[in-house]
Write a structure and sequence with these properties.
2 domains, 10 strands, elongated
Length: 387
């Protein structure tokens, strides 16, 4: 008796039932993989953005919550309430290097793009930027815009091309070398021009601070709080807070996906129970020619496992395709910006692929245990006399 051939013959005997049962597990695993792929790269993306920020401390408006901290990492628009006088007092503290940011939004060809107002010379030293095309700002109030490499590629921009921001045209001064961070997706303006365009007065969104002595980070936090009535958070505290929030979102996505897989498991149970009922006579014949209970149990269990293997493979392929095509369509906000910024390599995670297929097989095998047990415990007389 060739068990593998018998298994394949049995499950494909009724093609309609086979297709719809397979679709159930495929859709369940596809949704599982899609959620995992879109959510799984969030943590690594957050850590990368935190490192790229290059700051040990972040000075934020008083009362800022974790949502604002997420927005800092994603380059989203933030309230502008920190005054120039407060920035100056922070910059005057010995042992710190502080640079202000004004984060806003604009659009190029009806597509949203981040705009950041900066102090050109200080920011270049702080970030260590290198220019790939054109030149950097020659003066603190130069009328121009420096853009990230991804923005240049997306819109086909090069030095001297015009960019319109809030109704005013600015020439592209230069294109930065790729950094692998949100800077690649941003337009940078001298702070004075950004404040004028967005009617921010002398205010900024937040201040990034680098300290000379990391061992005295807590002391610097207290000193800044004493100097200005603003919020201060360390890079480690911010990273922990943001990861905690995103982790909650990720768990929710996984639970939603698990429900869809559970629904497909009941489809397999229903299919195998029906097969057990319809094939009583066949089971009796197998018992008559010497098949043991363990063999019959294994046959039915392998049939359900085959559904899981085939459905897992097709589900993984479908889920990865959905992840690749869905990410660019997600609305831009402080959370989904991480997903949109994730590279394709993060989607094709071998652990997610292999783990999802194994999970599919495990769920299918578990779904087939009861029908296989029912089939194996049929008495030969009852089975072979069934019409």
């Amino acid at each position: 008796m060739n068990v593998p051939r018998l298994v394949i013959k049995n499950i494909t005997r009724r093609r309609g039932r086979f297709v719809f049962t397979l679709l159930g597990i495929t859709i369940g695993i596809a949704s599982f993989v899609t959620f995992l792929s879109l959510g799984g790269s969030l943590k690594s993306e957050i850590r990368r953005e935190s490192t790229a920020l290059g700051a040990n401390l972040i000075v934020t408006p008083k009362g800022s919550c974790a949502y604002e901290q997420v927005s800092i990492l994603t380059g989203e628009q933030l309230p502008t309430t920190i005054t120039a006088a407060e920035v100056a007092r922070v910059r005057a503290i010995e042992g710190v290097t502080a640079v202000p940011f004004l984060t806003e939004k604009s659009a190029i060809r009806n597509r949203p793009v981040a705009v950041t107002g900066i102090l050109p010379a200080e920011m270049r030293r702080f970030k260590g930027w290198e220019v790939e095309q054109g030149s950097y700002f020659a003066a603190a109030d130069e009328r121009g815009v420096v853009i990230g490499k991804v923005v240049a590629q997306q819109f086909g921009l090069k030095p001297a091309d015009p960019v319109t921001i809030r109704g005013e045209q600015f020439p592209v001064t230069g294109v930065l070398k790729e950094t692998g961070s949100r800077d690649d997706l941003t337009l940078f303006l001298p702070l004075s021009h950004a404040q004028r365009l967005y009617k921010a007065g002398d205010r900024v969104s937040y201040v990034a601070v680098r300290v000379d002595d990391l061992a005295r980070t807590d002391a610097y936090i207290e000193r800044i709080k004493e100097t200005v009535n603003l919020g201060v958070v360390s890079d480690k505290q911010m990273l922990k807070s943001v990861l905690s929030m995103v982790g909650t979102v990720n768990v929710t996505l996984q639970l939603i996906a698990a429900v869809s897989v559970l629904a497909s498991a009941f489809g397999i149970i229903n299919t195998m129970m029906t097969a057990t009922y319809e094939r009583k006579r066949e089971i009796g014949i197998l018992q008559a020619i010497g098949a043991k209970q363990q063999t019959i149990f294994a046959i039915f269990l392998l049939e359900s496992g085959f559904y899981g293997l085939l459905g897992g493979i097709t589900g993984v392929l479908g889920g990865l395709l959905c992840s690749v095509f869905a990410a660019p369509l997600i609305s831009q906000n402080a959370f989904t910006a991480f997903v949109k910024g994730s590279d394709v390599a993060g989607v094709f995670d071998p652990k997610v692929i292999i783990g999802s297929i194994l999970f599919s097989v495990a769920v299918s095998l578990a779904s087939g245990v009861y029908p296989a047990w029912r089939a194996a415990r049929l008495s030969p007389v009852e089975a072979i006399s069934y019409e």
